[in-house]
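Justification of computing resources. Each target in the renewal requires a structure prediction run like the one illustrated here; the chain below, 200 residues long, is used simply to show the kind of job we budget for.
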Amino acid sequence: MTTSSLPELILIGGGGHCAACIDVIELAGQFRIAGIIDTNPARNNVCGYPVLGNDNVLGELRKRIGHAFITLGQINDAALRMRLTELVQSHDYAMPVVISPRAYVSRHAKVGAGSIIMHDALVNARAVIGRNCIINSKALIEHDAVIEDYCHISTGAVINGGVHIRRETFFGSNATSKEMTMSGEHDFIRAGSLFTGERK
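Resulting structure tokens:
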């Protein structure tokens, strides 16, 4: 399949996380990036892709483009990613799963719509990743772990076997969970920490 015959994809949010997502999408080769939606008037392209406008153009673009993906990062909370997801869905865009060819996702795992599995991440057997999650570079999601919707598992983080990370949680870089533990909703797990959480 040539690049020109690939389905087009709009990216929502043009910051640093967008650039990292572009690298994954280009390598995966399943979509052709049509451009970026961003509210910063000073930003006219990201990694060579044009900024097509702000949220107001999504309805018009839907007439010719069927897929959209949230490329806004998530640290303090997931509220803006959630609002943008609702906006995209209101225009009836499809939200794909994006998986880097350099990642490993077990065929016995499940990954929800709008989630991205980035370079060198590993998602093991019977793990469940919810909708609109970021599984960042070199993160490890072990067997039987559950990551609920709108979570960001940061670079190099380790989610051990049977752990349950509840919705809208940020799990910092190089943080490690003890096995069979559970977070609260909207938790913020500091980078480099040992997460002991609640026992399941």
